[in-house]
Amino acid sequence: MTNSIIFPIHEEQIQEFTQIICTYSGIDLSGYSRSFLVRKLQREIHDSGCSSCGAYLAILRNDHERSFGAMQSFTINYTEFFRDPEFFLALRNKVMPFLATYPSIKIWVAGCSTGEEAYSLAILLNEVNLLSRCSILATDINPENLSKAESGIFDASMVRNATSKFYLGGGRTAFHDYVTFGYDKIIFRDGIRERISFVKHDLTCGKIPGQFHLILCRNVLIYFGRNLQNDVIGMFYEGIRNLGYLGLGLQENLLFNKHANRYSIIDRDAKIYRKVDH
Q1: Within 10 Å of residue 248's Cβ, how many Cβ atoms?
Q2: What are phi and psi of 92, to 5 degrees?
Q3: Cα distance between residue 95 and residue 131, in whole Å
Q4: pLDDT tens column, 235-268
């Protein structure tokens, strides 16, 4: 916030905010990290021009569109193609050989945001000759995220950074081989797009959308409170096939998660885990 104004926000106001969002959108933010909710609320209050949290909540109570807009703001997370190249390099070297032993491969990218990670994964799978037997389910809670992701259209300005990280992550071909160029946009080729299904899913609901050999949920758990993190990691355990893999963000880990003993560490730095044999 440009003027660094801090608005007092109390627990009951956070609860009211999450109730308003749930009423208007059906999305439950109550399990999210309190520090995350407060930080985002501070930004929303400032941007709305309101003088207090109470005034901002009064607007949301009476304005469906503003409430929906607030939900969109709280569920849009930063992402980029081949974010954390070291993760994709570890995935290539330590997980892909395992996936190659299966005639068909199911992967879930949970909390996919606007799709950059799902497309990055599809490119990697194509490079190791596995894409033709893969189905990738990419899910997010935000319908606008999913609409953008499904279009496969992104700003052409992203290509230079994507190409650099692609090679750092072990890329051997060329990033631009997988897209066509418009005036200031790129669109992913059909061979990549057709392997990804973008579907709305709420990680807080506890429902597993299938059984998977690999689940990626990167840079999502950092927004959740401890109890919700436990619930989601437990849900992933039920959704990962025996000896399948889980990939988290580099700032995330299972250190204090109650399900930690159900996973073994494959790459501590890249945050890749494997479901313990049972």
Answers
A1: 23
A2: -60, -45
A3: 14
A4: 999 999 999 999 999 999 999 999 999 999 999 9
Domain that holds residue 38: 11-74
Show the low-confidence residues of the chain (pLDDT under 70).
1-5, 76, 278
Q: How far apart are CA 241 and CA 1, in angstroms?
A: 44
Name the burial class of residue 240, with classes exposed (0-12), middle (13-18) and buried (19+) by CB atoms within 10 angstroms of its CB: buried
265 beta partners: 273
Which tokens is 210 given?
Answer: 């299938």
Query: How many distinct structural domains can be found in the chain?
Result: 2
CA 65 to chain CA mean position, Å: 24
Instruction: Using the 3D structure, point to which of 54, 74, 94 is the last residue of a domain.
Output: 74
Residues with Cβ within 8 Å of residue 10, at least 6 apart in sequence: 53
Alpha helices in the chain (DSSP H): 11-25, 34-48, 53-61, 64-74, 85-90, 96-99, 116-127, 143-151, 159-168, 190-193, 226-239
* Start-to-end Cα distance in the chain: 50
